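FORM 12-B: Structure-to-Sequence Request
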């Protein structure tokens, strides 16, 4: 499923996702009628994954320079 993802794709999605605030992420889960506890848990999980993606993105950029 992920074998056709290019470094440019990683950079693009990483840059866009990093712009989301925790409130925006939480609002998406609240809009889907998750409980407050679920909203908190999933917001933290998504933020963690965005941060991990940012680290990959930074490493990719550093290797190019």
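FORM 12-B RESPONSE
SEQUENCE OUT:
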């Amino acid at each position: 499923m992920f074998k056709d993802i290019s470094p440019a794709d990683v950079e693009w999605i990483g840059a866009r996702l990093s712009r989301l605030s925790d409130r925006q992420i939480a609002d998406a889960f609240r809009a889907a009628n998750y409980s407050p506890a679920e909203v908190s848990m999933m917001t933290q999980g998504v933020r963690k994954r965005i941060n991990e993606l940012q680290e990959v993105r930074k490493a990719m950029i550093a290797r190019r320079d």
